[in-house]
Amino acid sequence: MLRPLFTCKFAIIKRNQGRRFGVHIFSLDINFINALRELPPLLLKNTVNQKNLTMPVSMKTLRNIAIVGGFVALGGAGYFKVKIQNQFREAEYYKKSLTLLRNYAPIENSIGRPIRGSSIDLGDYDNNIVDGKNAKIAIPVTGPKGKGTLYCFASRPTVKDSWQIDQLDIETHKNHQRWTFYKLPQSNSPKT
Hints:
Elements: E1 8-16, E2 20-28, H1 32-37, H2 41-44, H3 59-90, H4 92-102, H5 107-110, E3 116-117, E4 129-130, E5 134-142, E6 147-155, E7 164-172, E8 178-183
Antiparallel strand pairs: 1-2, 3-5, 4-5, 5-6, 6-7, 7-8
């Protein structure tokens, strides 16, 4: 018997009963035609079994799961937004800033009294930056005569210390003027 000029082995994965896989290893040589005869007939036909294409869950159930999942996601996002807003409102620099603004007499002409702080825009990354030692936030404020934005710049030497308000600017929405009405005196400012 003559030896084949070359031998190459290859594997064919066979699907058995739609779930399990079997491996057939063949040698490619002069007797290649004999190897093709050994191929299972399933591989020569369409191997997709139409009975296995049915979904285990109905479309109505999937739709209901998607709707409930959407409501849960929206509810969770709303909950965390409110929680973050409340953390800003309870922060020491937020409360001190509003107290200093309320004690600023000239603000009565443009915004009026009482002055209330609104929710901070969490998407404003330029004006709302807080790390452990520095805070820069823009607080929307409202009064009976108009609206404005209070820009707060605060700092503290270490994270265990209390916040000091370094500077406060106010911008009124009527005339879009922004001015500084409070600066921390130099003797009280923290040394860097």
